[in-house]
Specification:
Layout: H1 41-59, E1 67-71, E2 85-88, E3 93-97, H2 98-104, H3 112-131
Parallel strand pairs: 1-3
Antiparallel strand pairs: 2-3
Length: about 150
């Protein structure tokens, strides 16, 4: 005869519903809603280059068709050292190399503001090289109040 539990039999006490398997609370994703999203150096570099490039594109008609790209490392070092960017005027491309810019730039204060200013300065200098102008001529109204 097979064993069956009768309906009138008392049910053993169960764990509260808040417990999951093995008495632990259910698993959650790595980034929960109250925590800020993960922010990496690469993301901050991309954002800084993108905002500086958009400013320059809006200010200079000649840069509207130029592609600002980000590369990790240059293909090879030249006689002057490791290049921080490459300007390819015939292809309408400016390539900024992230690793040399981040590692070989000597900041007097190593914080987010100075890193951002250094990256923006590199974008301005690369765009100035593309246009054949001085970097300070690219955004004269931007620095008017300082």
């Amino acid at each position: 005869m097979a064993w069956r539990r009768s309906r009138t039999a008392s049910v053993s006490p169960r764990r509260p519903a808040r417990h999951g398997r093995h008495g632990r609370v259910g698993r959650s994703p790595v980034v929960r809603p109250p925590l800020p999203p993960l922010d990496t150096r690469i993301d901050r570099f991309d954002l800084t280059v993108g905002t500086a490039a958009e400013f320059l594109r809006s200010a200079w008609e000649e840069l509207r068709e130029v592609s600002f790209e980000i590369g990790d490392m240059p293909p090879a070092a030249d006689a002057d050292g490791i290049p921080r960017w490459a300007v390819l005027a015939d292809q309408k491309r400016i390539i900024l190399y992230r690793v040399p810019l981040e590692r070989l730039s000597h900041l007097h204060r190593n914080d987010d503001l100075h890193r951002r200013m250094m990256i923006e300065g590199a974008v301005f200098r690369a765009a100035a090289q593309y246009l054949g102008k001085d970097p300070w001529d690219l955004g004269p109204d931007r620095f008017r109040y300082f």
